[in-house]
């Protein structure tokens, strides 16, 4: 991927959006900041006239939007995804503010696809959705009224991404940039890890979720590279008693 066009490597992913007007408004916010990759995971209504009306001159983003039936389909080939959440979570991943997260995303977007994940208007993202991301992002707001609508959150993050792009002068050359594992590769590793942990008796197959959330948090902090995932999968294969 051309390292001079990092914004083209940024995906805005909207999960289970209930109001089509919010999709259109989000598309408009994206276009003003130079973002063009819109992914929709199981939207309630789309396409829809209300989305077209709210998008205004950003209808082209709606026409090229990717409609996905699962979150993995939307982010599986990305190397880094940040989840927008306003609520504190147990066992949460490292949390950055909007500016810090934008800087981290732009750094990796120079060489591979990255994503920003936004949840339902009423309830936000679920814990399983967040567990598939490596970072959580919090947009600082007034404690008296911290609720941002979807398009406003997209606009703020789009602005921060654009500023991060313009503020970055010295970047790591592609030759020296370690290639992060894709989320699809990491999910396959988690599945393999869970299988081996159950085989060994370390993990109770009736209650795997809490421990696996902790393992996800651990490896999310590490920022696994492709080669590291291959090494870990090799270790798991070497002790696989069912081979």
UniProtKB/TrEMBL annotation:
Record has Lyase as a keyword: no
GO BP: tRNA nucleoside ribose methylation
Keywords recorded for this protein, A-Z: Cytoplasm, Methyltransferase, S-adenosyl-L-methionine, Transferase, tRNA processing
Enzyme Commission designation: 2.1.1.200
tRNA/rRNA methyltransferase SpoU type domain ranges (all copies): 10-159
Enzyme class: transferase
Matching CDD domains: SpoU-like_TrmJ
Reaction equations catalysed: cytidine(32) in tRNA + S-adenosyl-L-methionine = 2'-O-methylcytidine(32) in tRNA + S-adenosyl-L-homocysteine + H(+); uridine(32) in tRNA + S-adenosyl-L-methionine = 2'-O-methyluridine(32) in tRNA + S-adenosyl-L-homocysteine + H(+)
Membrane spanning stretches: none
One GO CC term on file: cytosol
Subcellular localization, as worded in the UniProt entry: Cytoplasm
GO molecular function (one): tRNA (cytidine(32)-2'-O)-methyltransferase activity
Family according to the record: Belongs to the class IV-like SAM-binding methyltransferase superfamily. RNA methyltransferase TrmH family.
Self-association state and partner proteins as the record states: Homodimer.
General function of this protein: Catalyzes the formation of 2'O-methylated cytidine (Cm32) or 2'O-methylated uridine (Um32) at position 32 in tRNA.
PANTHER family (UniProt xref): TRNA (CYTIDINE_URIDINE-2'-O-)-METHYLTRANSFERASE TRMJ (PTHR42786:SF2), TRNA/RRNA METHYLTRANSFERASE (PTHR42786)
Listed name of the protein: tRNA (cytidine/uridine-2'-O-)-methyltransferase TrmJ
Organism, as annotated: Nitrosomonas mobilis
């Amino acid at each position: 991927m051309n390292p001079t066009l990092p914004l083209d490597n940024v995906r805005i992913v909207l999960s289970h959006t209930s109001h089509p007007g919010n999709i259109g408004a989000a598309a408009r916010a994206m276009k003003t900041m130079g973002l063009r990759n819109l992914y929709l995971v199981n939207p309630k209504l789309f396409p829809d006239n209300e989305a077209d009306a709210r998008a205004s001159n950003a209808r082209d983003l709606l026409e090229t939007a990717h409609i996905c039936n699962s979150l993995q389909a939307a982010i599986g080939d990305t190397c880094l995804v940040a989840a927008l959440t306003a609520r504190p979570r147990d066992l949460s991943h490292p949390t950055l503010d909007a500016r810090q997260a934008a800087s981290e995303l732009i750094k990796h977007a120079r060489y591979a696809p990255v994503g920003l994940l936004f949840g339902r208007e009423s309830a936000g993202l679920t814990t399983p959705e967040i567990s598939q991301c490596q970072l959580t992002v919090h947009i600082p707001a007034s404690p008296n009224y911290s609720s941002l609508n979807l398009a406003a959150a997209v606009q703020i993050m789009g602005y921060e991404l654009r500023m991060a792009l313009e503020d970055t002068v010295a970047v790591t050359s592609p030759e020296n940039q370690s290639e992060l594992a894709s989320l699809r590769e990491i999910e396959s590793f988690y599945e393999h890890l869970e299988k081996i942990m159950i085989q060994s008796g370390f993990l109770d197959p009736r209650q795997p979720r809490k421990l696996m959330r902790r393992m996800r948090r651990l490896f999310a902090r590490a920022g696994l590279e492709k080669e590291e995932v291959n090494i870990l999968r090799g270790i798991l294969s070497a002790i696989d008693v069912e081979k």
